[in-house]
Each structure stands twice: as C-alpha cells, then as structure tokens.
Design goal:
The structure holds 2 protein chains of 2 kinds.
Chain A (H helix, E strand, L loop, with lengths): L6 H18 L5 E2 L6 H7 L5 E4 L5 H7 L2 E2 L7 E6 L4 H5 L13 E5 L9 E5 L7 E4 L7 H8 L7 E6 L2 E5 L4 E4 L1
Parallel strand pairs in A: 2-3, 2-4, 4-5, 5-8
Antiparallel strand pairs in A: 1-9, 6-7, 6-10, 8-9
Helix pairs in contact in A: 1-2
Chain B lengths: L2 H4 L13 H16 L5 E2 L13 H10 L6 E5 L6 H14 L12 E5 L12 E5 L13 H9 L4 H14 L10 E3 L3 E3 L18 E6 L4 E5 L5 E3 L27 E5 L5 E5 L2 H11 L11 E2 L2 E2 L4
Classes of the chains: A alpha/beta, B alpha/beta.
Catalytic activity (chain B): alpha-D-ribose 1-methylphosphonate 5-phosphate + AH2 + S-adenosyl-L-methionine = alpha-D-ribose 1,2-cyclic phosphate 5-phosphate + methane + 5'-deoxyadenosine + L-methionine + A + H(+)
Pfam family, one (chain B): PhnJ
Family (chain B): Belongs to the PhnJ family.
Chain lengths: ~180, ~300
Amino acid sequence: MQPIPTPDETRANQNFAALLGALSRPGQIHRLAAPGEAEIIQALIDRECRVFSADPGLGAMLRQTGALMVEPQEADHLFLGALSDLALLNLLSLGSDLYPDDGATVVIQAGLSQSQAQTLRLSGPGIETTLDVTITGLPNEFWSARRDLIRYPMGFDLFLLDGADVMGIPRSTMVEVF
Amino acid sequence: MSLSSLTKPWEPMSYGFLDPSAKRELRRKMLKAVAVPGCQMPYASREVPMARGWGTGGLQVSLTLINPKTRVKVIDQGADDSVNAASIRRFLARVSGAPTTLDTLDADLIQSRHRIPEEKLRADQILVLQVPNPEPLRPVEPNMSIARQMHGDADYGRMWLQLYEQIVRSGRVMQGASYPSMVNGRHVMTPSPIPRWDVPKLHMAKHLTILSAGREKRIFAVPPFTRVEPLVFDDVPYRVEEHGQLTCYRSGAEGFFMNEIPQPDGSALHEISDSEYGVKHIRTAQGEPDARGETWYQNGQMEDTP
C-alpha cells in the first residue's frame, strides 16, 4: 500500500521546505503554500511552544495548537504582525551562549516587493558574497536595533512575511543599511 | 468547537512514520541549527524501528523532509548497496512512497553515512549526514556540561593542543575521520566521520547539510555558502588522504577517494569508495553516454582548497 500524506502533512511539509530554504538562504524569497502566518503556525507550533501574538486574529488558531500564550519576554515564537513598536524587540528572548536555540523565532509582516525604498545589503552564511534586498514596512531604526541586540550566537531569527512570500533573516546574517 | 475539530481522521500510520508532533519539534530545531551554523542543538530524538547508532538521527531528519516527490539516495561509506544504506533506503521508500535513486545528480535528498559523494551537489539538494559522536570536544573534555560551556566561550585551545600532540608524537596530524572544523568562524564541529578528503567539500558549498546524531540527541547544520575550515596550524597545512594517484581496479577511475582491499600477497588493490560514481565510470567506458557530473576533485586535486 502506497502511503499517502494527509492534506495537513502536505501543507506542513511544503511550508517547512519554504521556511528551511528561506532561513538557509537569507534574503531569498520563498513561497508558502498560502498567504499568512497560519501556514507557519501549522508547520511549527504545538503544545511544546510558548507563543506571543500581537495580532488578535491569530489567537484562535494558536490556542487550538495547544501552545501556551505568554508575554513577549517568555515566548519562543512571536507573531508580531506589522511591527510598529520597536520596544518589543528589547523583550525578545535571545537564548544564551550555552543554549543559543532558546533565542526566539520572530514572524513580522513586511513588504518584500522590489522598490526603490530602503536597500539592505546582507552577508553571512547562506549568501555567497553579498545580497542586496529591499524590505519595506519596518520601523526606521529596526535594523540598528537588531544589530545592537544580537550577540552571536545569542540572538533571534526573523521571518519576514509578505502574503505567501517569506524571507528568512537568521541571527548569523549581517545587515547593512544604505 | 466540536469533537471532530479536535481530532484527526483515523490513519493506519503517520505519513513518514514520525508523528506530527515529532516532526514539528525537528522542524523547529532544524531552523535553529541553520540559524547558528555548527552549533549542536539538543532535540528529543524519537524511537524509530532501528537501533540507535545506526543512523536514526539522519533517518529522523529525512523522514521530516520527505514527501512523495522527494527522490532519495542513501549511501554508507560511499556505497549504495551496503546493508545499512539499503535498509534505510527501503524503509524511507516504504513509509513515504518516495522514489529512490542511486544517482547523486538525480537525488533531492541524500542521506549519508561517513561520505560526501564525489559529484558536486547543487543548491536544490539537501545532504543529511548521520553522526555517531557530535561532540568534537569529547576526546579532550568528557564532561558534556563543561564541553557546552567551552563551546559557549569558544574555548577551543585544547583542540589545537590535541593536534599539536599528534604532530609531536607522530610527525603528522593523525586525525583521520571527523576532522574538527571551525564553522562560520565561531563553532567547532565534527563533520561526522567523513574522511579528511570530504571536509573541503563542505566549505562554501552550494547545498545545505544537516548533521543529526540520534543516539546523542543533537542536531547541527552547515547552511550553503558557509565557511568550514579544518583546524590547522599556519605552518602545517591541512592534508587530505593521498588518494589522488590511486586507480580503481574495477572501474579504472583515478583521483578519487578509494577503499583499500588487502590482497593475500601483502599488496593492496583500490576500489572507488563512491560506488555509483564508479558504476558511471564503467558505463561510460562501455560506450554509454557519459552521465558523470562535475566533481569536487579533479585529477586528485580539490579545485580551491581552503
């Protein structure tokens, strides 16, 4: 008998492939199966997670996964929606030098379409030399705040979400603002 | 909320053997492993129908990544047909319905024990390495809590001391497989017991490598285009095995990593370790179209050794 994946399994598998591709190749845009944070939640979140959501619309789905809803400083996965307040970044869990995996995974809505707006130059693991990308919709001081917070290997990992497009910025990526 | 919304339809078996919560845990840990290249991340390591230490770590990663379209190749010391490789390949195909292949160039997912194929891997391929002992510091620090602190402090002096002692005692670095390597300039990892020949293949490679130790419950990764530098002294360069001049007695292939086959008269024959590459070599010699891909080593030399 040929094993057939359930629709849930297919969806989670496809979305994880996108997330893994996005995080191992920072700055590249990968596509989720459908738009929205729900795809990421379904692939990653269950009752072993502590999550924070700034978007009340995700509450029902997150509760159904069994995850504990906590304050931002205790969360391992944060869904910050369209980030407006940089103060939230200061609360993120960064893990420790001994256990860098305790650093948070942060999902933020941002604009990933090509435009003439702020250009960023990325370098680090996953990028052969450097890569220029355009990211809109984040507060002005976001990238300098990120740089000040990350003490590699301590830090947090970002997924930027624009509809079904996702871009990963792991803590190992250097971001220069032009 | 109804009862049916809280339950799932009955299945005879979870797709890909692992249950969804095991897969989610592995997914979360794989992402963290990619985010901090070379750093060992603890994970739960579930039971699979295979004894721990026989590739259960790699198997769990493969089972999480696999879908019915993933073309899988499994190798054991370069060979597709050894018992370990054949059993894992059959198991993966049976629980996922995924097609299998022996050809490195055809594969989407390559699970390997102790070798990296000779043909260059592409960006769309993922290499999963089975790791028996993930802790490079174990020979110098058996206490794993202290070893973790040493990783946290990037305190790797004893690793160099170990290499220095080998050079003083034996005149050369004796470390054959699992050569300790610095990843992204921060974490020293063991590249799993691949020969020294294979370590440069990880440096700035196009593909993603995931290393998983099932018995030791740790997972780590080398993302594409990541620096992987074997620990060496400035005046003692890194040397790979001297196999560049050897010829495979079966296929006639020359300049690749070989298995030594001792003969009764005390001499030795050599056979190419990457068995499918040897097969391609033979087929080409018999007049079939050349199916061999670009290799990392050419004429026994790595093109740009780090």
